[in-house]
């Protein structure tokens, strides 16, 4: 996991990981009778690090056709399309993709993941600002150094709670469909079946909802 994507994964200054997917990862490991070991990666390096070092990739990973060329996925456990977040005083200006994609708009994005791919595919006139630090990226909007960011709806809700100056824009009507799931080794049928069964039980017993409510409500 990247350790830079609240509320799913965040690495503290002491090296300890926390977040929704950290809790789920520890629960999954306990159910398997093993100890979870979290490996720090980056969004550009996610696939290579997963293939070379890890058994599973977590931390708000979205299912994409590109990733499916090299890896498999467990059954999706969350619907989470792209939504915009901006200063609350500016939300009326950014109610649609057409309204966002204007020459005067400064759209900030973290490189290497689905956010950058979405921005490059949909913003042809807006100015794109690449910002490598996903932890401080929303402060750039607060400080007026950028106008808007399009990211997963769950993150816009989380960040709007952390920054009172920012508002999620129509998170219940995302600009694009997406699902989150755990990335698994391609073709490992027994492992996928085990993870899927575990998640099904987590949802049916309410354990998943408890973790979801802890981090996203």
UniProtKB/TrEMBL annotation:
Q: Which UniProt keywords apply?
A: Signal
Checking InterPro entries in the record gives: Solute-binding_3/MltF_N
Gene3D superfamilies recorded: Periplasmic binding protein-like II
Keyword Aminoacyl-tRNA synthetase in the entry? The reply is: no
Q: Any idea what this protein is called?
A: Cyclohexadienyl dehydratase
Q: Which residues form the Solute-binding protein family 3/N-terminal domain?
A: 1-217
| Pfam families assigned | SBP_bac_3
Highest rank taxon of the organism: Bacteria
Q: Which PANTHER family match?
A: AMINO-ACID-BINDING PROTEIN YXEM-RELATED (PTHR35936:SF19), MEMBRANE-BOUND LYTIC MUREIN TRANSGLYCOSYLASE F (PTHR35936)
């Amino acid at each position: 996991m990247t350790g830079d994507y609240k509320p799913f994964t965040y690495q503290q200054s002491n090296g300890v990981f926390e977040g929704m997917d950290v809790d789920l990862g520890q629960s999954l490991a306990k159910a398997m009778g093993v100890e979870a070991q979290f490996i720090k990666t980056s969004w550009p390096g996610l696939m290579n690090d997963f293939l070379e070092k890890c058994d599973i990739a977590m931390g708000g990973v979205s299912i994409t056709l590109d990733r499916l060329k090299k890896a498999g996925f467990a059954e999706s456990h969350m619907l989470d399309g792209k939504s915009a977040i901006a200063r609350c005083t500016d939300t009326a200006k950014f109610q649609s993709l057409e309204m966002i994609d204007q020459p005067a708009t400064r759209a900030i994005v973290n490189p290497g993941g689905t956010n950058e791919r979405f921005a490059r595919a949909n913003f042809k006139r807006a100015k794109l600002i690449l910002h490598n630090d996903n932890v401080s990226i929303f402060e750039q909007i607060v400080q007026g150094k950028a106008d808007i960011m399009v990211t997963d709806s769950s993150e816009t809700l989380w960040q709007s709670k952390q920054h009172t100056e920012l508002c999620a824009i129509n998170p219940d009507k995302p600009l694009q469909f997406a699902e989150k799931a755990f990335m698994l080794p391609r073709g490992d049928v027994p492992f996928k079946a085990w993870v899927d069964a575990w998640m099904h039980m987590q949802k049916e017993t309410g354990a998943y909802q408890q973790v979801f409510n802890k981090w996203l409500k």
